[in-house]
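Attaching the record inline, Q. Sequence:
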Amino acid sequence: MDDSNGPSHYVRLTKEKDPLEDITPGELNQPVQVPQLIVHRCPECGQPLPECYEPPADENWTTGICGCFEDTESCRTGLFCPCVLFGQNVETLRDDVTRSDACFCHALCVEGGMVVAGATLLFHGIDPKTSFLICETLVFAWWLCGIYNGLFRQSLQKKYHLKNSPCDPCMVHCCLHWCALCQEYREMRNHLSDSNETQMTIVKPPPVQEMNSDDQKKQDPASSSSSSSSSSSSAGPPGNGEQTKLEIQPV
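Structure, as predicted:
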């Protein structure tokens, strides 16, 4: 029976195909991100951290910004020689900056601007020209004070996980520079004292016991006498005309 007039059960093959997706060169050679291989590292020291690690929360300062009179020595140093106190703080916090370098930079940026403004006022008086120069010098010194000391305060907060108290580190030094220096000194002193007071249990091994030559001489006669008594008791009375002669010599 001829089924030529009915519908065809074959699929007609043609050369027309769906357009392929455009692939840019190098697209298939990109690295694959595997979450299990991602290692979290400490931003301070670079050591790898476990997956369950959570950074500690920021803590409060041990002393307030206005607690300068809690330490009279640092209060006097910060009031009359703030550059010296700043050098001490930087030397305590960082190992790559010496006290003299930090003190010189602080004296040049902060105290230097105040000295220039005071000298201009003393020698030239107050007039429209000198007043602008004085204000410009003071504003520049105030700006350097906030930026330079604020960066140090920020690194101190990052190391000990401290909050911004009472506000941003740069604004604290711009408004309360001398109080901020004293507070930073007290904070580092308290943290260092806490670390030094930590008790450690030290286990020492027992001493090595040695025998001297005098002790050996004392023990030799005692051992020889005990061995002679034991040998005599074991030998018993001589019998059948036989005699046993034992002679013990010390080793």
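Residues 231-239 have pLDDT under 50 and may be disordered. Strands lie at 40-41, 48-49.

More tomorrow.
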